[in-house]
Amino acid sequence: MSCNLFQHNATRMEGSPVSTQKKARMVAVNENGQRIGESHPRAVLTDHEVMLLLELRDEGYSLAWLAAKFEISRFHTWRICTGRKRSQTAARFKRNPGR
Questions:
Q1: What does the domain layout of the chain look like in residue ranges?
Q2: SS3 for 3-62, per residue?
Q3: What are the pLDDT digits (tens) for 57-96?
Q4: Which of 20, 39, 61, 63 is at a distance of 20 to 30 A from 55, taking alpha carbons?
């Protein structure tokens, strides 16, 4: 199967020029139009990692252990677990032009 995939990609590349332009992607924004969650430029954890962190906390793991595993501070771990950070829901999604 991988051979067929390679042949398919090779014929596709021969037939058309390869675009170097990045595609735009959709990002989550709050009611003020600001990026939230993993689409925020300074986000350290993905949305999946935050959900995993919350599930592990519900199972009884300590904040210190979670902070060490996710390589973030205990304070930031506490803020996520108590809902002070990463607790917004997306009001809408908007297209973010690729850079």
A1: 2-96
A2: HHHHHHHHHHHHHCCCCCCCCCEEEEECCCCCECHHHCCCCCCCHHHHHHHHHHHHCCCC
A3: 999 999 999 999 999 999 999 999 999 888 888 889 998 8
A4: 39
